[in-house]
Amino acid sequence: MIDRVAVEDEGQGDPVVCLHGLGGSSNTWTAVMPALARHRVIRIDLPGSGRSAAGSQPLSIARLVECVRTVCQRLNVGRVHLLGHSMGTIVAQHLAADHPGLVRSLALFGPLLAPPDPARANIRTRAAKAREGAAGMQEIADTLVKASTSADSRERFPAAAAFVRESLTRQDPEGYARNCEALADAKPASVANIQAGTLLVTGDEDGVAPPQSVRAMAEKFTGNKGGTRVVVFNRCGHWTPIERPQECMRELASFLPTQR
């Protein structure tokens, strides 16, 4: 634990820091760990998620960014590859834009700049539902499994749907609610300032990060000296590392060695 934040640190090599999304934890990345075998992998349960306490203060993207910076400082790592999923991609973009010396590359799964305005009210409603406790979290989980994973994933890979449901129902309701509020308030990073090479991965059935939005997002990375690549998986929803781990590992194995 680092300042009441759960951190897993394993392996040797160039450091990779993994940032999960809303309702996720360090386990979001378990299925793609074989692709990171030559790296030092640091997986963080961000404040209010998984095993990490939310603390007494409201959560924000800025606070999550500062948490990641503190973890890197305490572990004496610099120039990291950042992996992000969903809300974690927003945190990763702010880190890369505001602290370019820290970030070597970005591999973002289900990426978004910030929630579109119509979605913000829905996210706040979800925060209120979470505060109903276990019953509210179960309702959220059942709704999101259907809405955020593809029908193909649920049919062919039922363990993926079970993982997503378990990840959501195991969240602390108040911590999840505060993270919802942080996401609802999220502002886009200055991505034109990002110089690190960037991989953007989404699913063709991802309603949070639909392919057309991800392609438009990629065009905003105008200062990117390492290039930006967009990959779209077929019959895949929003939980790309869970729904399509083999494909994610293939992309990581191709991308990471090219980033210096």
Structure, described:
The structure is a single chain. With 260 residues, the protein is of the alpha/beta class. The chain has ten helices and seven strands. It has helices at 61-74, 87-98, 117-130, 134-148, 151-156, 158-169, 173-184, 211-218, 240-243, 245-255; strands spanning 7-10, 15-19, 40-44, 80-85, 103-109, 197-203, 228-233. It has a seven-stranded mixed beta sheet with strand order 1-3-2-4-5-6-7, with helices on both faces. Strand 4 (80-85), helix 2 and strand 5 form a beta-alpha-beta unit. The radius of gyration is 17 Å and the shape is globular. The two termini are 30 Å apart.
Number of strands: 7
Query: What share of the residues does DSSP label as strand, in percent?
Result: 15-25%
Task: Specify the oligomeric state.
Answer: single chain
Overall mean confidence score, pLDDT: 94
State the separation between the terminal residues, measured CA to CA.
Answer: 30 Å
Low-pLDDT residue intervals, each spanning 5 or more residues: none
- The ordered string of helix (H) and strand (E) elements is EEEHEHEHHHHHEHEHH
Descriptors:
260 residues; alpha/beta; 7 strands; globular
